[in-house]
Write a structure and sequence with these properties.
The chain is mostly beta strands. The protein is built from four helices and 34 strands.
């Protein structure tokens, strides 16, 4: 690709400016949006590389790879490629997502990270982004459904990165001693011969165990009712829902009281319709639309992030599958795997657990077991049988021609993809030959 020195000078100055430049005070924007604007203002959106960067930015979210959180990968962005990565994952309302990004590079290049949701009309809406200095985003899921995360490095930057997506509760736990086994009855379970549904979770502990405020906020009501007995209602600061503590033996908080996390709002009991049960806290969360499942808001069971055991020295390398078919999938759990033909050429994008995230020559991204890939050493040789055989830069009939090969010339076969072979010449040139 032709890249004129004039554009190189602009990009170097652009890179420096984007690391310390001011925000647009008239229209707040994420660092990614600021960088794109600077590309456009510098006229680089008319250049091949600048235009490719913007095109990549727009294509990442619609083509995001499905993963399951918690998730961790170590990848590499190369300066000679217009790279990026995107992920889609499911969160439950009330979960807190923490996205951490660490990078390693001698050039200290920028990687832009943002989180999105897809609206009902199919458009994407940005929810949060890392600022120009930070490398972490925390986002409370305000709905249950799919979320998207995009990573994109600035142009001409290269280096490795590690992305970690962790999940946990967005609120504290309502008892001082935290034990997941205390939660023994869940949201939605049938009650009274299935005439109604349980609108919360039950947390069991000893009689008169202190029940705590799990968020800073205001006690809006302290009263009694037939089902809940002695109850306390708490509105967390800045939230659109109310917390409900029921079956208390004693209400400690008073209406209108301002509380902090850890303040005692009541003592556990079995009042109301719980008179025949062991002491427990019925805990619920209510919105303007009714009750929601409170478990994701307080669940103390936090799944661990999987360690990476794949060899990160293979990042950005061109490898091939073993001499047999290899299972691949579009998510890190290798669910519903498809098979790649033997000796298929791939590029390693990232290491994930004991797998590699790979890119096929057609741009499709998948996951394979790390032991299923080997280096692209010559498999065999091929003698050119037709005159002016074209050596292509991409496995496509309309790809660019790198050179032409003569009849009788011998090349080394490195791997395959669909109807093409990746070969190397005696002069060290690498390209694709059509099998047709």
């Amino acid at each position: 690709m032709e890249f004129k020195p004039f554009y190189l000078l602009i990009l170097i100055s652009l890179t420096v400016a984007c690391k310390s430049g001011p925000f647009n005070l008239l229209k707040p924007a994420s660092p990614h949006q600021q960088y794109e604007r600077k590309l456009v203002n510098a006229g680089l959106d008319q250049n091949t590389m600048g235009r490719a960067w913007i095109t990549k930015a727009n294509s990442l979210l619609p083509n995001a790879v499905g993963v399951k959180v918690p998730y961790k990968e170590t990848g590499y962005f190369a300066a000679d490629k217009v790279d990026g990565a995107s992920f889609k994952f499911t969160l439950q309302r009330g979960q807190l997502l923490t996205a951490r990004l660490a990078k390693q590079s001698v050039s200290n290049f920028a990687i832009y990270m943002d989180i999105w949701e897809r609206k009902d009309d199919g458009e994407f809406k940005v929810l949060a982004f890392a600022d120009s200095l930070g490398a972490q985003i925390q986002l409370e899921a305000k709905r249950s459904g799919e979320y998207f995360l995009r990573l994109q490095p600035e142009l001409l930057g290269s280096g490795s990165y590690t992305l970690e997506l962790a999940i946990g509760p967005s609120l504290a736990y309502p008892l001082k001693a935290v034990n997941r086994k205390q939660i023994q009855s869940f949201y939605g379970v049938g009650r009274d011969n299935n005439t109604r549904r349980h609108e919360g979770i039950d947390i069991f502990s000893g009689f008169r165990t202190p029940v705590l405020a799990i968020a800073e906020g205001t006690v809006t009501r302290v009263n009694e009712n037939n089902l809940g007995g002695k109850v306390v209602w708490l509105r967390p600061k800045g939230k659109d829902y109310t917390l409900y503590y029921a079956h208390l033996d004693e209400q400690v908080a008073t209406a209108g009281q301002q509380v902090l996390i850890g303040d005692t709002v009541g003592l556990m009991g079995n009042t109301g319709n719980a008179k025949t049960t062991p002491p427990h806290l019925h805990f619920g969360i209510y919105t303007s639309e009714g009750a929601v499942d409170p478990l994701p808001f307080v669940d103390p069971l936090i799944p661990a992030v999987q360690n990476i055991s794949s060899d990160i020295a293979k990042l950005n390398a061109t490898l091939r599958t073993l001499n047999r078919s290899v299972d691949v999938a579009d998510n890190q759990e290798l669910l519903n795997p498809e098979s790649l033909k033997q000796s298929t050429v791939v590029r390693v994008l990232a290491a994930v657990g004991n797998q590699y995230k790979i890119e096929l020559p057609n741009g499709k991204i998948a996951y394979v077991a790390h032991k299923s890939l080997v280096e692209t050493k010559p498999l065999n040789t091929r003698k050119i049988a037709v005159s002016n055989q074209q050596l292509l830069d991409y496995p496509n009939a309309i790809a660019g021609v790198k050179t032409t090969l003569n009849v009788g010339q011998t090349v080394n076969v490195l791997g395959n993809f669909e109807d093409f072979q990746l070969v190397s010449t005696s002069g060290g040139e690498i390209g694709w030959l059509s099998l047709r």
